[in-house]
């Protein structure tokens, strides 16, 4: 890190002692449970949507707002949520976020109409934006020893990567055997256990100084991200050239440029540029964002293939992703956890990108009569091994060497880029899939066989684009990451640095 960057850091007194021994690992259990709740909520509700639509009687066009309402609130409020955790205390914001998320989930589960369901989902997103960065920054400030930090981020990264698959399985089970409402009520169980654990096991540092909240930065960040996420959501349904898509996206980008200019001038910025301009952190943010886009090639379109061509039920679809979940856990908690403290992320993340790309390339071999065991399973396993090597080291790198004063907003950036990356991926891949299917049908009689082949061609197109996304992850991480182990935590007690 440059001398100028070091001088630009605000002074931070030594932190309060972090929990020692088994207490830290119990902290990890609590934080991982909260992270799982936030991550799986992105996919668990997708499984429940058809049943909710039938029960509450809303249209397919309105259905997207149940997903978009969450994405808009979550994506746009993350940076503010991260800075508030630095301002009010991470443990306090963690508990506020956890409680609010649980109550919003209960409201959604009891919804008697579309409006109430969308409102509850937006509330979930808002409190999730407080919860997610607080959890990750607590993890970063609790685990400062490099070896323990590698293990902790290996587990946390595995959950971040595998949570979507858990959501598919849990959503299928709850929808089939109980009700779509339990896909929301289940968060109450997670939240109660995590809340009890948090009050007993989580320790936070004393707040050194409360810088004034950057109001102009907060307003422009929220407005810009809302415009961008809203426009991307409309691109998926209305097309890229529609005014409802272009105007919010262009407006959002203009406002985000204004946000950057504000952050360069205000004394206490919402997002200090020193956080993102560090090579390791910048490389992490780009890698996570692009990997988030590529992941949707798996979860969204492979789900379509399993249901449409292999005739899988929701539960079978969820179970089909379990081997990928196991592969993510394996690579993140072994290679990712053990090697990151020793060699740093530079060899691991490019390798993960290449392995994930190979898994997606294998998926392009899927045919109308492919089986799960030979057609889908090997690709999923390879893909999972690669994703584990991407998520654990990048999350570790994105919060390494950052002052505790900035830990909340550095953590928020991870969730922000993953959310934006996922939105871009969903919109782009949906658009490419629709174009590929249309192009395949040109000049052909619309028989059932030709329509099935067109659908398959659209999936192949998406999988090839996902290959491209993961190759970009490999390239960006190889170029941006510094060689060698990650920076020692600048605010860690000196004893831990030796």
Description:
This protein has 498 residues and is an all-alpha fold. It has two domains: 423 residues, MFS general substrate transporter like domains (Growth Hormone, Chain: A, Up-down Bundle); 56 residues. The N terminus and C terminus are likely disordered.
Give the structure's gist in a few sentences.
With 498 residues, the protein is an all-alpha fold. The chain is built from 17 helices and no strands. The protein has two domains: 19-213 and 270-497, MFS general substrate transporter like domains (Growth Hormone, Chain: A, Up-down Bundle), CATH 1.20.1250.20; 214-269.
- What name does the CATH topology of the largest domain carry? Growth Hormone, Chain: A
Total domain units = 2
Mean pLDDT across residues: 82
Distance, first to last CA: 19 Å
Give the helix tally: 17
What layout of secondary structure does this protein have?
Layout (H helix, E strand, L loop, with lengths): L2 H6 L13 H35 L3 H29 L1 H20 L4 H29 L3 H32 L4 H20 L13 H24 L4 H21 L9 H5 L1 H30 L5 H7 L1 H22 L1 H19 L8 H28 L7 H35 L6 H33 L18
């Amino acid at each position: 890190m440059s001398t100028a960057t070091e001088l630009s850091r605000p002074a931070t007194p030594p932190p309060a002692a972090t929990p020692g021994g088994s207490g830290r690992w119990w902290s990890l259990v609590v934080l991982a449970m909260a992270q799982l709740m936030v991550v799986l909520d992105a996919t668990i509700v997708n499984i429940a949507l058809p049943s909710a639509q039938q029960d509450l009687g809303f249209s397919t066009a309105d259905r997207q707002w149940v997903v978009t309402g969450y994405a808009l609130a979550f994506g746009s409020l993350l940076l503010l949520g991260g800075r508030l955790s630095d301002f009010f205390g991470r443990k306090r914001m963690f508990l506020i976020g956890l409680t609010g998320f649980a109550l919003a989930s209960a409201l959604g589960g009891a919804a008697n109409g579309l409006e109430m369901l969308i409102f509850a989902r937006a509330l979930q997103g808002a409190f999730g934006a407080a919860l997610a960065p607080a959890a990750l920054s607590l993890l970063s400030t609790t685990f400062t020893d490099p070896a323990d930090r590698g293990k902790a981020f290996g587990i946390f990264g595995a959950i971040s990567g595998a949570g979507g698959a858990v959501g598919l399985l849990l959503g299928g089970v709850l929808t089939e055997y109980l009700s779509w409402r339990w896909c929301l009520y289940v968060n109450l169980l997670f939240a109660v256990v995590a809340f009890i654990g948090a009050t007993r096991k989580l320790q936070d540092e004393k707040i050194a100084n409360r810088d004034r909240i950057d109001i102009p930065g907060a307003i422009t960040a929220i407005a810009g991200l809302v415009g961008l996420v809203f426009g991307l959501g409309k691109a998926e349904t209305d097309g890229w050239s529609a005014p409802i898509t272009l105007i919010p996206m262009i407006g959002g980008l203009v406002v985000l440029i204004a946000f950057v200019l504000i952050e360069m001038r205000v004394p206490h910025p919402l997002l200090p540029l020193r956080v993102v301009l560090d090579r390791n952190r910048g490389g992490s943010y780009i890698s996570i964002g692009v990997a988030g886009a590529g992941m949707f090639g798996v979860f969204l379109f492979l789900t379509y293939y399993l249901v449409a061509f292999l005739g899988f039920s929701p539960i079978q679809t969820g179970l089909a992703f379990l081997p990928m979940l196991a592969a993510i856990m394996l690579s993140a908690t072994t290679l990712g956890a053990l090697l990151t403290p020793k060699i740093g992320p530079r060899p691991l993340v490019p390798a993960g990108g290449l392995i994930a790309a190979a898994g997606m390339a294998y998926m392009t071999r899927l045919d109308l009569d492919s089986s799960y065991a030979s057609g889908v399973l090997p690709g999923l396993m390879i893909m999972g091994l690669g994703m584990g090597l991407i998520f654990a080291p990048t999350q570790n790198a994105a919060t390494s060497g950052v002052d505790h004063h900035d830990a909340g907003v550095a953590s928020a950036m991870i969730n922000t880029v993953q959310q934006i990356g996922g939105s871009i991926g969903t919109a782009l891949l949906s658009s490419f899939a629709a174009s590929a299917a249309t192009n395949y049908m040109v000049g052909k009689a619309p028989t059932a066989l030709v329509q099935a082949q067109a659908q398959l061609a659209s999936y192949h197109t998406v999988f090839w684009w996902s290959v491209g996304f993961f190759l970009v992850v490999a390239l960006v991480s190889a170029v941006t990451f510094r060689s060698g182990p990650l920076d020692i935590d600048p605010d860690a007690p000196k004893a831990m640095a030796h």
